[in-house]
Fold this protein.
Amino acid sequence: MHSLRLGFAITTSVAADIIIMDEWIGAGDRRFAERAQERLAGTIERSQILILATHKEGMLRRSCNRAIVLDKGKVLADGDIDVIDAYAEHLTRKPKAGGDKATAR
């Protein structure tokens, strides 16, 4: 746990123009998590670009103004943050009869 806190402290103490995150920090006790959220929000506010990989729609809408929706490396949508609706649509779409996969010969 101490190494997580130390790593987080070091990471958020450096001013960065670009921040790349895979999900949002969610580890630690409640007090640490609350303080970490505030510190991370300040770090992001001072940056120029945030690249955030997540499935959490609320987090995307709070933190981002643009989105690229990917599925197995294929771009489904790219544009204003509202394109994440394409992700929800993709998840609810029924597979075609016979499937979409090509058959190897």
In short: The longest strand covers residues 74-80. Residues 1-55 form one domain. Helices lie at 2-13, 30-46, 57-63, 85-92.
